[in-house]
UniProtKB/TrEMBL annotation, chains A, B, C:
Name under which the protein is recorded: Uronate isomerase
One Gene Ontology MF term: glucuronate isomerase activity
Enzyme kind, highest EC tier: isomerase
Catalysis: reaction(s): D-glucuronate = D-fructuronate
Pathway(s) per entry: Carbohydrate metabolism; pentose and glucuronate interconversion
Organism: Corynebacterium glucuronolyticum
Coiled coil start-end: none
Family according to the record: Belongs to the metallo-dependent hydrolases superfamily. Uronate isomerase family.
One matching Pfam family: UxaC
BP term (GO), one: D-galacturonate catabolic process
Xref: PANTHER family: URONATE ISOMERASE
Xref: Gene3D superfamilies: Metal-dependent hydrolases, uronate isomerase, domain 2, chain A
EC identifiers of the protein: 5.3.1.12
Keywords for this protein: Isomerase
Length: 469, 469, 469
């Protein structure tokens, strides 16, 4: 029996022996359940092609900003990690840097996930991630990845992947999704998600071109704001036709004040001319958040938001490596003052599903749980990104449950770009839920039978119910 | 022996056996102490009339927005819960909805309190709250409520109610309070609390009429701002004459900048004409917060504030069901920058008692504990509303005690509209305190004897000392 | 064996027996390590003079606002505690007040530290801190302090003081530091720290005189903003020549937007004329935060910031007792939007060390860990001031580690004015780290061997690495 902690059956459970025993029993109910992943960032083409992963670095390191940021903070150049298409000194060199600096990940969720992947996906002892064995590990892992069982589709079976949502540009043709839907031999449901951020943020480069293309392509010949709204509606329908159940919005703040058509047209014009102030751009973005909620009343798409992130805070890294390379930083927001117009008009509709994610955990008990604990439309989004780590997940539970119970929870979200981390992330959630529920049982706040029902509902039913799966 | 957790003598205590043993022993010191409740929302007329509660729904469901909001979030119409005077499909139908959806309350403080009420007030097994037994439970509970022992005054004895404060309009005649004070057969002290919010918030409907009536009734013939202040002083004295010990202020933010009489008069005029901007209204409200503190220097009333709540966020619900129906949502505030004028002028006075409540738990360690840990006037208000749930109470203790100790604590506040939840809420507080202190003993930060002294002081002396009872 | 908790070898460790056992073993690795204290507020002249401490009050009470604020909150006049040079009714009277009110400190970190000092520095049973023994305790402690072993230098040996940084005015001649460096018989390194706050905050009294003196003294004959910058550079170099490794900045907020030389000159002129608005003053201060970071690129000084404090909130106390007397209060800040200009230009430089302290613990998981987890220059500052208490230190670990690991930690900072509390504070940190790591081991997230390596790195290597010692 391997003694590495990654193999310990009690990992992540509370240390108190009595509570741990309860957690063990609760975990058994959900340990082997299929994976429902209603939000993430994988490329669906991966399943169409179903080719072997090129090498350990391209699979595990380069695309995962959770992982590269830690190495970068230690002064390692991101090009040597093959981030943003850079080749650096090759994949084996990147791999060595990773192994040599493995100690940096101690105590992090990222480190835990990687160890779980080695132990439970690749069947390789994670204690081999070290300077001395970097090369042999690279070779052995390469060999594993070359096996037919480790191609994307085969892994989907191994992972018991039931539902996997991708995140897609409104003008994406969704051909990969169509191909997968048409392929009876592939059972997981791979669903597109409508993410219109590139078309709503005037302050980002490319806005003008994006909007022109959107209106031209999908505006039904209408122009201006009218064509813009029409194109959004049309593309949402196209996504629905390809299986989409939700839209996703990385909005800057929580503004949702609607504008009149004339006001919106004026701001849109300014934005297209590159003359909008940041405040005007946010007013337009806030109007669109409201409009997307309005569209959901008609087409039924679930709406998820995750506001409050300073994107690409390092201009030099953005220029050299592109976005999503680890230097986005959250900031605090006022939820209720921003969201009130949207909630006032659509929050009372139980058929509208509005999931509020946050990277600011202080909002959980102060705003998000109170909102979701009243409005039939509002749901508490799972903790994600930065606060998807283990202790933060525990804090999330304790911050929301006492106020709002379990019923307003979105279900676990992995939000990942790292395919092989999916089982580890979901298993982490299951263990954290088991530990939390075990504490409530140990404190005589729930019966163990009640807790068993709840954990099954949290893991399997919640995401299906909230995301209308 | 009933095995439902509600009966477990160790409920809410920490799971670690050693710590739990200490908690048990500490709890014994306070388990049977009388209840001191210096802030709440019961109608004192209830004790004057002392009639039986009409039915389970009117007692437990309709008036309690803690409870109805959870059902509403699941899509249940509030009129069917008989909220806001609506009859829906009758009380029995509302009761059935409650029982059918009982699972929604798992893990919530509200659910815990209700179970405690059934087990320890009504003597009914809480496992009967379920779809199947909804009707028989309604009947059995109705029978219980018809017994003489379950009328308000008799319950007050059962609850060991020593002090109970109500929350009252400045123009209330306080006749019920006078009647109760004059009645030697009724031993609990039922004290009015002066809450002038309806007379300070220009942005609320009814402001003009309220202020006119106030000045006319109690302004000693003076007019304008001078009459307004005089009327406030007079009504405070009237409250004091009827036993009041404190004033309560649901202020929008923490502004306390005083205005000159001329500035205040100008804003008051604008407000009366309905022409004040929101910023002007807040400036006037902030001035009044300062003025109420100033009045307390003279008349000695304890002053409590609870800023930072977006009231009635759902306009449709406000219109149909009225205020206090579950859609108030907290937001974050800057305490010290707002409160500094008040603290600078009155904070150094130990005879002035200024209790800071918050619904934003982040303020506890950052602002409230530091302020109360220096200013002799300032006290850390108990966690309430949304953060009065069990785990939040634990976080409150851990967030304030290390900085400020136990001596600056307001004492527990139940703030309730649900009469029968009072014993459960106070018992919850006693158990949480016992658990926290037990941890400090187990970590060798306190002796058990020292912890015993502290828990007695927290439960019984703190509220009496801070509220000058 | 004394049964007072201060002597218990398991103090502060987690209560769960299994976890406690692990904590005990981990603590042994660091229990006796030398003390590295890269930031604090002691007077270096103390070590030059090496005279006995005058009396218990002057040593323990008067200079320590952690301690006096608690007594003050209970209504005790600060002059009676001999704060700010006041004599009150003499040191023995102050001591009695302290002893009589000792219960106020139960559960506080301050109380814990004082007990540790008595038990482990003075060799006096801390249960003697009580009303009855106040006088005999004063006498006995006075006797202890008169012993040669209890002079500053001898205590430095007892404490195993290896590095101690002071905080100094840019125009300080650093003669005490020079004397100590030249004295081969004194082994601890006592390092100055460059703290220019009095020269950057236009809104503080004395700004004009300070700046004039700075430019005259060290401006190389240059005038205006140019002379000001040159003088800063020169004095930094002077500090470096006297052993300084870092600069410290108690900035008001997080602004770091650089100004052009012309803009800065204009604001400086306004400030010198006393005509700058608060916003203009903050713009100048923000520019200087950026400029100090810029200077660090050249001279290599580590830069520490601790923004977000309302200083001297009680004007009457400021007037009577001076600054740093317990009425500073933290407030919330936006880190990333403020720091982005600095991080954009200097954050990618691994040779620049930028340590972010905060008194707002919500920033740890939301902003500080994400920033330090990406930027090679950025470090997570240890929790300090208000949140240097025991439970807050635990929360700090749990808020930062899962995201960023251990490698971005500044090392423990005692930030103290209370010399004899230094061992207790560092020991507290070691025990908290042992307890946290023990939990990770008990939850199978780390091996015990790995945890042992980490705790040694945290306690000894981290501060040396981050502060370039």
């Amino acid at each position: 029996m391997n003694t590495h902690p990654a193999y310990n059956p009690d990992r992540l459970f509370p240390a108190d022996p009595g509570t741990r025993d309860i957690a063990r029993r609760l975990y058994l109910y959900v340990e082997d359940m299929p994976i429902v992943s209603p939000h993430g960032h994988l490329d669906p083409q991966m399943f169409v092609d179903n080719t072997a992963f090129p090498n350990p670095t391209k699979l595990l390191i380069s695309p995962d900003h959770y992982l590269t940021r830690v190495l970068h903070s230690a002064g390692i150049e991101m090009e040597e990690l093959q981030v943003g298409g850079h080749e650096g000194k090759g994949p084996r060199h990147a791999w060595r840097l990773f192994c040599e600096n493995w100690d940096l990940y101690a105590g992090t969720a990222t480190g835990y996930w990687v160890e779980q992947e080695f132990a439970h996906v690749f069947g390789i002892d994670p204690s081999r991630i070290c300077s001395e064995q970097a090369d042999s590990l690279y070779d052995d892992l390469s060999e594993v990845l070359a096996q037919p069982d480790f191609r994307p589709r085969e892994l989907a079976d191994t992972f018991k992947l039931d539902v996997l949502a991708t995140t897609d540009d409104p003008l994406d043709d969704l051909e990969a999704h169509a191909t997968l839907r048409a392929d009876a031999s592939f059972t997981p449901r791979v669903l597109p998600t409508f993410r219109p951020d590139a078309y709503t943020k005037m302050y980002n480069p490319g806005f003008k071109g994006n909007v022109e293309k959107l209106i031209d392509t999908a505006g039904d010949g209408k122009t201006g704001y009218e064509g813009y709204l029409q194109a959004m509606r049309n593309r949402r329908q196209y996504f629905i036709d390809h299986g989409a159940v939700s839209t996703d919005h990385g909005i800057h703040n929580c503004q949702t004040q609607p504008l009149s058509a004339a006001e919106a047209q004026e701001l849109l014009d300014k934005g297209m001319r590159g003359e909008a102030t940041f405040e005007e751009a946010l007013a337009f973005e806030g109007n669109m958040t409201y409009r997307f909620a309005e569209m959901s009343q008609d087409d039924g798409l679930v709406m998820t938001i995750h506001p409050g992130v300073y994107r690409n805070s390092s201009p030099s890294a953005l220029k050299k490596f592109g976005p999503d390379t680890g230097h986005d930083v959250p900031f605090a927001l006022d939820y209720i003052n921003g969201l009130q117009p949207l909630l006032a008009d659509f929050g009372e509709n139980p058929d509208f599903h509005f999931v509020m994610f946050t990277m600011d955990e202080t909002a959980f008990s102060r705003e998000i749980a109170p909102i979701a604990g009243y409005y039939p439309a509002a749901y508490v989004g799972a903790p994600w990104w930065f606060i998807d780590e283990i202790d933060a997940m525990k804090r999330f539970r304790a911050a929301t449950t006492g106020t709002t119970g379990f019923s307003r929870y979105s279900g676990f979200i992995d939000d990942t770009r790292a395919y092989c981390s999916i089982p580890a992330r979901h298993d982490t959630s299951r263990r954290v839920e088991a530990g939390y529920l075990a504490r409530l049982v140990a404190e005589h706040r729930l019966t163990e039978d009640g807790a068993a029902d709840i954990i099954v509902d949290l893991i399997d039913n919640s995401p299906r119910r909230v995301f209308k799966l």
